[in-house]
Write a structure and sequence with these properties.
alpha+beta; ten-stranded mixed β-sheet; single chain; 3 helices
Length: 157
């Protein structure tokens, strides 16, 4: 008679974990490659991870730049160009990388306070109504070149 109770006691924690909150979406690995020319936009990169449900990134805001847009590099008639995008689908339990040569953020007029502190807070506006706050490390042009990354001027802007 004790064996069934022991099995129930062992199974209870597993059953309770199945009733927990769904896994949330999150953003990590955020960084900004500062443009060598203050008049040109800088580029931002990150990885978006989907939770238990799919979600969209509908926009990105920051108090540390004049303007932020999501862009995508696309091949058009044999020429690589950039186009703004309004939203990005992040599949359930999947990920979407914003990386050099693909999807990326364009940030105009990053202020000196952010540059001096070496990071800036980005607010991601999600389709489920959540706002995800993420600190993005700012890499100055010489640091980006040292890491083997292409300069921001080669992003096509």
């Amino acid at each position: 008679m004790r064996a069934p109770f022991a099995l129930i006691a062992l199974a209870a924690p597993l059953a309770l974990t199945a009733c927990g909150d769904p896994a949330p979406s999150y953003i990590d690995q955020a960084w900004v490659r500062l443009s060598p020319n203050k008049e040109s936009p800088s580029a931002g990169y990150f990885v978006a991870h989907g939770g238990d449900a799919g979600v969209q990134i509908r926009g990105v805001l920051t108090a540390y730049a004049v303007r932020v847009e999501m862009h995508e590099s696309v091949m058009d008639k044999g020429v690589m160009t950039m186009k703004p995008i309004d939203s990005v689908d992040v599949p359930a339990k999947g990920e979407v990388a914003f990386a050099p040569g693909g999807k990326h953020l364009m940030l105009w007029g990053i202020n000196d306070a952010a540059i001096n502190q070496g990071k800036m807070e980005l607010t991601f506006l999600m389709s489920d109504g959540k706002r995800l706050l993420v600190d993005a490390v700012i890499r100055k042009p010489e640091a980006a070149g040292a890491a083997g990354a292409k300069p921001a001027a080669h992003e096509g802007h």
